[in-house]
Amino acid sequence: MKKWKRSARLVHMTQQLLQNPHRLIPLGTFAERYQAAKSSISEDLAIIHEVCRSEGLGELETVPGAAGGVRFLPRVNRSSSRALIDRLCRSLSDPGRILPGGYLYLSDLLGDTSLVREIGRVFASVFAASGADAVITVETKGIPLAYATACQLGLPVAIVRRDSRITEGSVVTINTVSGSSKRLGSLSLSRRSLPEGGRALIIDDFMKAGGTVRGMIDLLREFNAEVAGVGVMTDSRVDERLVEDYVSLTTVNEVDVKGQRIKVVPGNLLERGGIQDG
């Protein structure tokens, strides 16, 4: 196996770390791959760490010992988070998003891969220490956000269905009640989607009274699973909410259908902590 030039080694090593966030990679793996001494690999990792940290991409964590190694932890600082939130507020305030019944059109935002990736990085920063084993969401609009977040955390995704499907195998189903309309419904999750007694991070696109999120929390109890956290792109100002412990990027304060006006403000993300200064 040929020996790599240092410039090529740095590029390839950075790519491997960024594509495998939170995955512990032994130094010996890099040393063998690039035919280089571990001391040289350590110097390379120090350079990568400094660049990632200074550019607000994240940081490298070194785990000592025979079973140790290095892993990349995605991080988004406060200024980058604020810029993303401001961008979302401006976009969501467009009166053209108002649909009949006072609903908001969000599909274009959830179809913007660049925007969704950035939202996933923010949620991954906030919930990096949550100890989650999986990310869960309910079909269908929350799926892009859940996958973006899970990708940054190196976790699997479990999708809660509103109707059970034969292709899901054995499922757990619970009945739910919408917090706003009091409409009955059901949520189902395949028994193979989530390990018994695990910890799940709930990610969704929009939360009003919180009936759907509360349903997912209740569903997790059927798996003896704990809630590692709840993150939503947008919540809505309501008098009574079924979920209080959550993180939101933006908050819709008002939707004036007649006047064609939407008032959107930053959510509670920056108040809740978990985002580094810098």
TrEMBL record:
Keyword set, alphabetical order: DNA-binding, Transcription, Transcription regulation
Record-given protein name: Purine operon repressor PurR
The organism's taxonomic lineage, starting at the top: Bacteria, Bacillati, Bacillota, Bacilli, Bacillales
PANTHER family reported in the protein's UniProt record: HYPOXANTHINE/GUANINE PHOSPHORIBOSYLTRANSFERASE (PTHR43864), PUR OPERON REPRESSOR (PTHR43864:SF2)
Residue ranges annotated for the Phosphoribosyltransferase domain, each copy included: 116-253
Family affiliation: Belongs to the purine/pyrimidine phosphoribosyltransferase family. PurR subfamily.
Record domain Bacterial purine repressor N-terminal: where: 5-74
Keyword Iron part of the UniProt annotation: no
